[in-house]
Structures are given as C-alpha cells and as structure tokens.
Specification:
four-stranded mixed beta sheet; 3 helices; 31% helix
Length: 127
C-alpha cells in the first residue's frame, strides 16, 4: 500500500487547493524522472528545481511514474523514486523555496505525478 505523499508546507490557501484539485492550473514546467535510477533521479530533480526557481516558475509538474499495482508480482523496483521524493524535497537545499507538494490531477498524470508549488521570489511578493 502506498503511503500518502506528505504536504510540504501548508501555506496554500483554499483557492490554490481548489485549482490544483480541479486540474485547472497549467504547470510552468515539468521534470520527468522516468527511466532514472534513484541517484540520477535526485540529480535531475535538483537541477530542475534550480532552473524552475531561476525562471520564477510557480508550479512545477514532477513526473515520477505510476506506482505498482497491488496485484503486481513481487519483488519489483517500481515506485522507489516516488517513495523517496517527499524526503528528497524536505531535505533539499531548495526546501525553503517550496510552498507545497500536492498530488497531480489525472489530466497531468494523476498518481504518476506531483505538483510542486514554489514560493514567489521575495522581491515579487505583495504586502
């Protein structure tokens, strides 16, 4: 059974959650971790976050691949990247730039993807 993905940060208001839940948001960019080992996936994620933050992206679509089906034959290695992503993001040098992580809407990959909501740059915030 899959563990629910942790919500990094709880800084999103209800309108953000509604937009993400309905799939009405359009991700600014995406990172695809298909075909990577755990080690290479972490490097791709870190570099992708660097680029997204530098561009000022707000919503990043992280494609991890769908988890294995419960009836799949064991042992299998699928799902290890998806399982590690929450810990990677929490311990990342970019953690302070991440407002939240949410499950993606089916039109953006559903169980095989996550939205990473990045914080606005400090000079872009309205007070």
């Amino acid at each position: 059974m899959l563990k629910p993905q942790p919500k990094l940060g709880t800084t999103l208001d209800g309108s953000w959650d509604r937009k993400l839940g309905s799939g009405s948001v359009v991700p600014d960019s995406s990172i695809d971790l298909h075909g990577h080992t755990l080690q290479s996936a972490y490097g791709v994620l870190d570099a992708g976050l660097d680029r997204a933050i530098a561009r000022g992206d707000r919503i990043l679509l992280l494609i991890t691949g769908k988890p294995p089906r419960p009836e799949s034959e064991r042992p299998h290695a699928r799902g290890r990247i998806r399982e590690a992503v929450g810990d990677w993001l929490a311990a990342s040098r970019h953690a302070a730039n991440i407002a939240s992580v949410r499950a993606a809407h089916p039109r953006h990959g559903g169980a095989g993807a996550l939205y990473i909501v990045l914080r606005r740059p400090p000079n872009d915030r309205k007070y």
